[in-house]
Write a sequence for this structure.
């Protein structure tokens, strides 16, 4: 059956928490309070549904967020405007079935109308080559490395230029058309002048 990507619902937070904490060392654990904070403040918090059950989730936010992650701060100290993917989790039984690509396509569709870049990180624990390959095949490139002060884990810091942003921004500014796939941000976003950190064809 098809994959449906949609906004998370409040009653699903317990299921999202269980998915996150069963994901293994590639994803930092969460508690209910932290997850609730994401629900209340994250600009983008969506789940994937397949065969009537949750197959995963993705949480993201813009560079104007007050997010307290050291990885997010690393990007913000170096790049003025970007959409940051804090975490993406796919249920183990659904991995390899296209859920991750569906999420990234949906997140990019959202982000490219608002930000010139997407940013994320991948932990460098010696077993994440498939994850790095996945991101590389989706257009992400390493722009540095960072040791997280919270955990001591080293992460590859990845960015991807969103080539449609300049045209959308110059054509529509902040007045995007009112169409379903251009869902408005869940919280206000601060916009600053973009600065290129990658190239587009």
């Amino acid at each position: 059956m098809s994959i449906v990507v949609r906004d998370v619902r409040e009653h699903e937070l317990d299921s999202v928490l269980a998915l996150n904490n069963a994901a293994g060392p590639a994803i930092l654990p969460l508690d209910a309070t932290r997850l609730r904070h994401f629900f209340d403040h994250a600009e983008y918090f969506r789940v994937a549904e397949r065969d009537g059950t949750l197959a995963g989730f993705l949480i993201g936010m813009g560079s104007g967020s007050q997010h307290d992650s050291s990885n997010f701060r690393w990007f913000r100290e170096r790049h003025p405007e970007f959409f940051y993917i804090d975490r993406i989790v796919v249920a183990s039984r659904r991995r390899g079935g296209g859920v991750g690509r569906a999420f990234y396509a949906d997140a990019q569709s959202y982000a490219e109308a608002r930000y010139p870049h997407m940013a994320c990180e991948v932990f460098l624990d010696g077993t994440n080559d498939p994850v790095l390959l996945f991101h590389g095949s989706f257009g992400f490139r390493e722009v540095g490395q960072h040791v997280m002060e919270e955990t001591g884990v080293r992460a590859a810091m990845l960015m991807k230029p969103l080539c449609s942003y300049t045209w959308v921004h110059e054509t529509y500014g902040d007045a995007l058309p009112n169409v379903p796939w251009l869902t408005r941000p869940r919280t206000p976003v601060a916009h600053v002048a973009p600065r290129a950190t990658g190239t587009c064809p």
Remarks:
- The chain is about 30% helix and 25% strand.
